[in-house]
């Protein structure tokens, strides 16, 4: 059965969202959040269609949208350890979104975000900035002066 226009638009937007999620974004970036909201709406409309795709396909779309939504929620957490823990519970998609992908993009995004959060945790623990330089303003020890 040929894919409907709604399904094609859903797949296109899903690919775009996966690509945006793979990039390092500015914290003030709002587009991905809006796009994922639109994906949820499109998915609900797709489920309500009379000629909807197979249930396995819809489940895979749902898994990918839920993954993106969970990833956005994890990014809003404050500490790197909370982000890493939330990232562990995310389930990436099992099937590539397009035929050109060998590995599902959500799996790649999952691995990239895990590495990013691990790096953030390491820099928090070791007191280094993102370039690996020690942060000099964390601890300023003063020499102990003994009264004479």
Radius of gyration: 21 Å
Series of secondary-structure elements, N-terminal to C-terminal: HHHHH
Q: Name the shape in a single word.
A: elongated
- Beta-strand content bin: under 5%
Count of separate DSSP helical elements: 5
Structural class: mainly alpha
User: Uncertain runs with pLDDT below 50, 5 residues or more?
Assistant: none
Could you tell me the number of beta strands? Answer: 0
Sketch the major β-sheet. none
Helix fraction, binned, reads: 55-70%
Helix and strand layout, with pairings?
Blueprint: H1 5-22, H2 31-48, H3 55-75, H4 80-88, H5 105-126
Q: Can you describe this structure?
A:
The protein is mostly helical. It contains five helices and no strands. The protein has helices at 5-22, 31-48, 55-75, 80-88, 105-126.
């Amino acid at each position: 059965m040929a894919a409907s226009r709604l399904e094609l638009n859903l797949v296109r937007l899903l690919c775009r969202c996966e690509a945006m999620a793979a990039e390092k974004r500015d914290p003030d970036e709002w587009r991905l959040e809006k796009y994922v909201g639109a994906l949820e709406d499109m998915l609900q409309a797709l489920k309500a269609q009379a000629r909807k795709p197979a249930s396995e396909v819809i489940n895979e779309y749902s898994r990918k949208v839920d993954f993106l939504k969970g990833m956005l929620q994890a990014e809003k957490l404050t500490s790197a350890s909370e982000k890493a823990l939330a990232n562990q519970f995310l389930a990436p998609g099992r099937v590539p979104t397009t035929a050109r992908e060998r590995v599902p993009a959500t799996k790649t995004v999952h691995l990239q975000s895990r590495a990013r959060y691990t790096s953030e945790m390491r820099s928090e623990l070791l007191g280094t900035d993102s370039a690996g330089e020690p942060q000099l303003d964390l601890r300023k020890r003063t020499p102990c002066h003994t009264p004479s």
